[in-house]
Design brief:
The protein has 314 residues and is an alpha/beta fold. It is globular and about 50 Å long. The N terminus is likely disordered.
Length: 314
């Protein structure tokens, strides 16, 4: 595993399961991507650890590392161990072992990035995992619901809130961007956004000073992978074009180059093309989903991403 971004880096930005599937797809293309992961998770094991210890939430970072473990690591045991969650009713109930291991590495090294790199080397990860911020953040939004507009604070609450998001912000408003993540974005040939929770995993990257500035200044191709289905709560009722309209509404100066989607998730092809054009992007439709019509299939997403990447990144 490299400790610095190689030439023609592909950087994938997101969090959770959506980022994991993008990383697995890029790995299938023999690309060693840099994963830039959000630090807004405040639920479950990650939420408890950030609250009690003041650390960035480790869960999405752990999942990204596991996604980068290649077939040559000798065994699937380590990924399973890192994903293992403790049962019972004690203090460790519900914690993933990988979360606890990352926090231990951060305390031992005194450095979030160094701890991630150390674990990446142990796992023989094919790529690198970095937080977008060196501190935990809180995702907050102004949401118009049937009861009127109100402020929703916290990723876990926002994920479950049904309504129209009118504004999105982070607390603190100026979190410390991870310098290594900024450097990776500035040297990248391609930036891949999504799939993933729209307001809590994908768009918050554009709110971190340093990260957003690096994205805006980068000459990299910007690729957005649209979600397979609306998420109950924050994107309930969304059609494919709605994602792009909300991107434009919140970040009108942040264009895109390619929007990747599965036809089964697009019932509004004309409106999608129009919204993409407004952002400077073209739409690439392809078979991306698992056969049952569920989430994204890494192998099919890899084929679609290969066509979206600039030649130098392949």
């Amino acid at each position: 595993m490299s400790d610095g971004p190689p030439v023609n880096t592909v950087v994938a930005l997101g969090g959770g399961h959506g980022l994991s599937v993008s990383l697995r797809a890029l790995r299938l293309l023999d690309i060693e991507p840099v994963a830039v992961v959000g630090t807004g998770d405040d639920g479950g094991s990650s939420g408890r650890l950030r609250e009690h210890l003041g650390v960035p939430p480790p869960g999405d970072l752990r999942m990204a590392l596991v996604a980068l473990v290649g077939d040559g690591s000798g065994s699937a045991l380590w990924p399973r161990v890192l994903q293992h969650r403790f049962g019972g009713s004690g203090d460790v109930e519900g914690h993933a072992l990988g979360n606890l291991l990352l926090v231990a590495l951060w305390e031992e090294t005194g450095d979030v990035v160094a701890g991630l790199d150390r674990l990446g080397r142990v796992l023989e990860a094919r790529g690198r995992v970095l937080p977008n911020s060196l501190e935990p953040v809180v995702v907050a939004a102004r949401v118009r619901t049937i009861d009127g507009a109100r402020d929703i604070v916290g990723q876990a609450r926002l994920t479950l809130t049904v309504g129209h998001v009118e504004g999105l912000r982070l607390l603190p408003e100026h979190p410390r961007a991870c310098p290594e993540a900024v450097a990776a974005i500035r040297s990248a040939s391609t930036l891949v956004f999504g799939p993933g929770s729209w307001y809590t995993s994908v768009l918050p990257h554009l709110l971190v000073p340093g990260i957003s500035e690096a994205i805006a200044a980068s000459s990299a191709r910007r690729v957005l992978v649209l979600n397979a289905t609306p998420q109950a709560g924050e994107t309930q009722g969304f059609e494919a074009h709605t994602y792009l309209e909300t991107w434009w509404g919140l970040f009108p100066d942040m264009g895109l180059d390619v929007v990747v989607a599965d036809p089964r998730a697009v019932s509004d092809a004309g409106r999608l093309a129009g919204a993409a054009s407004r952002l400077g992007a073209e739409v690439h439709l392809g078979d991306l989903l698992v056969s049952s019509g569920g989430g994204h299939d890494p192998a099919r997403l890899a084929a679609a991403l290969e066509g979206a990447l600039p030649t130098a990144a392949r």
